[in-house]
TrEMBL record:
Keywords linked to the UniProt accession: Antibiotic resistance, Cell membrane, Membrane, Transmembrane, Transmembrane helix, Transport
Transmembrane regions listed in the UniProt entry: 20-39, 51-75, 96-119, 139-159, 171-191, 197-217, 237-263, 275-296, 317-342, 362-382, 394-414, 420-442
InterPro entries documented for this protein: MATE_fam (IPR002528), MATE_MepA-like (IPR045070), MATE_MepA_subfamily (IPR051327), MdtK-like (IPR048279)
Localization, UniProt: Cell membrane
CDD domains: MATE_MepA_like (cd13143)
Name the record gives this protein: Multidrug export protein MepA
Organism placement in taxonomy: Bacteria, Pseudomonadati, Bacteroidota, Bacteroidia, Bacteroidales
PANTHER family xrefs: MULTIDRUG EXPORT PROTEIN MEPA, SPORULATION PROTEIN YKVU
Membrane-protein topology: Multi-pass membrane protein
Protein's UniProt keywords contain Heme: no
Coiled coil segments of this chain: none
The UniProt record lists the keyword Cytoplasm: no
Length: 460
């Protein structure tokens, strides 16, 4: 099957089969992606000690911020391409590909230079202490030095999915997991490079995968491929990419702000090991969140294409299936978090104190998981069809408008327990907001579909 035919199937193939076809590779890829982050943490925690886990947790805001810029380009471009492919505007889609490459290079290099110049000051602002700063700095120097390759790697994977190549995107991610795990063992256990070894393993694995992605897009027979004349930045294309990408950018920036605030509150009401416990809980939650992100990535080109083609019944169908799948995934995560927290924490450390703190963090952090999947799908859906303001609002409601005030207020009464319980409370409230918003728009989309059907019947 050629690339154009695969793209056209987004508007004709049964939705259930289509979502499975696109979501399964994305789920596998995202799960694999979460695994290589977890593998890093396990190696670091078991070999470098509990404070290294805390130091790694301090870097989370940095990773969120880097991901914010990557998502602004990668997700914005892939969504824009999906809509253009649905409209059969292949020439514009081609130029979006070229502009994405240029934007990723510019942003990736700029972010690295600025961050490296002020690294220690930034990490201290993020909550690093004298004990955890050396670990965090050793890790981030390497990660930032290779940041442009990470931007390119994640951006290329998003474009592969938009170009109807979800399996290739999956293979690229699985490769990075396997390669990263092998290099982790070599750099940390054999060469004794410590936490910096985990960073070298991550970047080197992504660089090798990026070379393969570039080779794929170099095939002139494909609908989307590299060619001359598409790399010069086009004002209209850049504007549209960033307009769509502003929602995931806002989500990741908010996540950055939230993690900084959580780290500071944990340090104030607890200590370095409480930050490490949050890092463990975050990694456990990350596995299931990445599952749902895989579902969202599978949904995105289907929803975007059918919205662009005005096939609203198919768009609504894929959203409903995605919500059901995400809810099942997150409920599974909740069951594991409630009943198996010891085994989850023990993966990352042998320190008895950190294990106990990690168990508590896991149970509370995952408390509202059964409703989070729905909120994530709804937010991604509005992003996928270009409803940027709504997507931003839903992103902000969960991370900024609700969680930050709760983090500021609840610890005044409950101390460190207030920090922990702020997270599930904000998750639950934001799910209510997302549910109400989706009901309003689903009624609107159903009405639009009925009207288009009535008009089509009149024209027969």
């Amino acid at each position: 099957m050629d690339n154009k035919q695969a793209t056209l199937e987004l508007g004709t193939k049964p939705i259930g089969k289509l979502l499975w076809q696109y979501a399964l590779p994305a789920i596998i890829a995202m799960t694999a992606s979460s695994l290589y982050n977890i593998v890093d943490s396990i190696f670091i925690g078991q070999v470098c000690g509990p404070l290294a886990i805390s130091g790694l947790t301090i870097t989370f805001p940095f990773m969120n911020l880097a991901a914010a810029f990557g998502a602004a380009v990668g997700i914005g471009a892939s969504t824009f391409i999906s809509v253009k492919l649905g409209q059969k505007d292949y020439q514009t889609a081609q130029h979006i590909l070229g502009n994405t490459i240029t934007l990723n290079i510019i942003i990736g290099i700029t972010f690295s230079i600025f961050s490296l110049l002020f690294l220690d000051q930034i990490l201290e602002f993020f909550g690093a202490s004298e004990a955890t700063l050396p670990f965090a700095a050793d890790y981030m120097v390497v990660i930032l030095a290779g940041n442009v390759f990470s931007h390119m790697y994640f951006g290329m994977n998003a474009l592969l999915r938009a170009a109807s190549k979800p399996k290739q995107a999956m293979f690229a991610t699985i490769f990075t997991v396997i390669m990263n795990s092998i290099l982790d063992y070599i750099f940390i256990f054999i060469l004794k490079w410590g936490i910096a070894g985990a960073a070298y393993a991550t970047i080197l694995a992504q660089i090798i995968a990026l070379c393969w992605q570039i080779w794929l897009f170099s095939d002139q027979k494909q609908l989307l491929h590299f060619k001359r004349g598409i790399y010069y930045l086009n004002k209209s294309i850049v504007k549209n990419i960033l307009a769509i990408g502003i929602s995931p950018f806002a989500m990741n920036v908010c996540a950055c702000i939230v993690v900084i605030f959580i780290n500071k509150q944990l340090a104030h009401y607890g200590g370095d090991l409480d930050i490490g416990a949050y890092g463990i809980a975050n990694k456990v939650a990350f596995v299931f969140v990445m599952f749902v992100m895989g579902v969202n990535q599978g949904m995105q080109p289907i929803a975007g294409y059918n919205y662009g083609a005005q096939k609203l019944d198919r768009m609504i169908h894929v959203v409903k299936l995605s919500v059901l799948t995400a809810t099942l995934i997150m409920t599974t995560g909740w069951l594991i978090g409630m009943f198996l927290p010891y085994y989850c924490a023990r993966l990352f450390t042998t320190d008895a104190t950190l294990i106990q703190l990690g168990m508590k963090a896991i149970r509370i952090s995952l408390l509202a998981f059964p409703v989070i999947g729905y909120q994530m799908v709804v937010t991604n859906f509005f992003q996928s069809i270009g409803k940027i303001k709504i997507s931003i609002f839903l992103s902000l409601s969960r991370q900024l408008l609700l969680l930050i005030p709760l983090l500021a207020i609840l610890p005044l009464f409950l101390e460190i327990d207030g920090v922990w319980y702020s997270m599930p409370i904000s998750d639950f409230l934001s799910a209510i907001i997302a549910g109400w918003t989706m009901i309003v728009y689903m009624r609107k989309f159903n009405r639009m579909h009925r009207e288009s059907q009535a008009l089509a019947n009149m024209n027969k």
